[in-house]
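Mods, move this if it's the wrong board.
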Amino acid sequence: MKTAVLVDGAFFIIKARRIYGMLTPRSLVSKLLRAVRRHMRGKNNDWHSDLYRIFFYDCPPLDKKMEHPLTQKQIDYGKSTRATWRRELHNVLRTSPRTALRLGVVDDVNCSWVIDSDKLKKLCKGKIHLTDLAENDITLNSKQKGVDMRIGLDIASLAYKRLVDRIVLISGDSDFVPAAKMARREGIEFVLDSMWAPIRPDLQEHIDVLYSCFPRPLVHKPQSSAESGQSSD
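Not the wrong board. Structure tokens:
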């Protein structure tokens, strides 16, 4: 039995941060590889599967200078700590065995500034004023383009060419329902690892198995697209 593991990078990074805290890129990839090895043994260690390949889908970090709307300070996002960390992660993945890095593009034209949700509620209720906001309360949100499309195309290719018997998708996005349905029609077992995040019923309906090979998060927090600096298309 051959298994392909597909990782929705933006989703994985956010969820892993809640499970493990802040890690170096190399440590994070090590955690991913450990989870992949567990998936090769099945939910109850009831089979042994050979790894076909790990596909990791992400986008390069934003490489743009923007003026912060609150402080009017010029920020070079290409030199930020977040951008440096993301580039190092991609470099580690490129050198990892049997791993393919699939990069989309960043929409650096339609970037938007996002106010922290708690601060926004207080602003609307008049509990605080604009002058009470700090620089970190307003973050830049850019969107990924082409990532979901690449995941869908790879699922279709793996299924139609019968390259694998099993697909493990690390994600929680219902956008992949059509791809999951198609793979199952082709006789591919479809496993979803949502890293303990709840999933929508329509996604649950069109997968074979739902389980996670990652530790449970210690604290559950509402997901914010601003955490990763990018939101998927």
